[in-house]
Amino acid sequence: MQRPFQRPVIGITSYVEPASFTVWRDMPVALLPYMYVEQVVRAGGQPVLLPPAGDPVAALRGLDALILAGGGDVDPARYGEPPHERTGYLRQARDESEFALLAAALDRGLPYLGICRGLQVLNVALGGTLHQHLPDVVGHEGHAPAPGRFGHLPVTPLPGTRLAKILGEQPVTVPHAHHQAVDRLAPGLTVTAVAEDGTVEAVELDTEGFALAVQWHPEAGEDHLVIEALVRAC
């Protein structure tokens, strides 16, 4: 059946949070930073927002690719740990929705891009664990310098990986806003980029299809290559 859009349809997961806008105050809203939408459109895709409600897996039938966006922390109970005192913004409905979406997307071979939280969901879903507060590990807060502010640190793609084919093998400075990161890498994943302090900054699934996740925020940067690569994979 012919679709109404000629552009590849890219589903992007979204938040449900209290927000204030126009005349409304502290109303529950399904929302997403508009940078995601702009970057997908710029890359030639048609963005569709996926709130954590109803049966989001059913929406995969109409999608050409899936982006799991950034957001609050994954519930550490999913990887068998009690919450750190700095772990926060846990949203059970979002966890349930995104873990189900990811499993279905991978099963169908749908092109997948995880961004920040989207990398963490991928690692946990496949059996990995997370550092719950990265400054405890690396000794600095450069990956998340302040609420609502990006840090800018270089990451180095590893030779021979899908990410290196997209970005090259030289260090590239990218916007960061994460206080968690991969601890134990899940089976089936390969590390594809690291920060100078050793933090895992990108992974890919050992598969022929496009299944890539980055810990930084490509939607907020000037380098559009990662999201363009996802759209091309469609």
Range of helix content: 10-25%
- Strand-residue proportion: 25-35%
Principal-axes geometry comes out as globular
Rg result: 17 Å
Structural class: alpha/beta
Biggest pleated-sheet summary: 9 strands, mixed
Give the H and E element order: EEEHEEHEHEHEHEEEEEH
Number of helices: 6
Strand order of the largest sheet: 4-1-5-6-13-12-11-8-9
Low-pLDDT stretches are none
Number of strands: 13
- How far apart are the first and last residues' alpha carbons, in Å? 17 Å
Summed over residues and divided by their number, the pLDDT gives a mean of: 96
How would you describe this structure to a colleague?
- By secondary structure, the chain is an alpha/beta fold.
- It contains 6 helices and 13 strands.
- It has helices spanning 34-42, 92-108, 117-125, 135-138, 162-167, 225-233, and strands at 9-13, 15-21, 24-31, 46-50, 65-68, 112-115, 130-131, 151-157, 172-176, 181-182, 189-195, 200-205, 211-214.
- It has a 9-stranded mixed beta sheet, sandwiched between helices. A two-stranded antiparallel ribbon has the order 2-3.
- It is globular, with a radius of gyration of 17 Å.
In a few lines, what is going on in this structure?
By secondary structure, the chain is an alpha/beta fold. The chain has helices spanning 34-42, 92-108, 117-125, 135-138, 162-167, 225-233; strands at residues 9-13, 15-21, 24-31, 46-50, 65-68, 112-115, 130-131, 151-157, 172-176, 181-182, 189-195, 200-205, 211-214.
Structural descriptors:
alpha/beta; nine-stranded mixed β-sheet; 6 helices; 13 strands; 234 residues
Per-chain topology:
Layout: E1 9-13, E2 15-21, E3 24-31, H1 34-42, E4 46-50, E5 65-68, H2 92-108, E6 112-115, H3 117-125, E7 130-131, H4 135-138, E8 151-157, H5 162-167, E9 172-176, E10 181-182, E11 189-195, E12 200-205, E13 211-214, H6 225-233
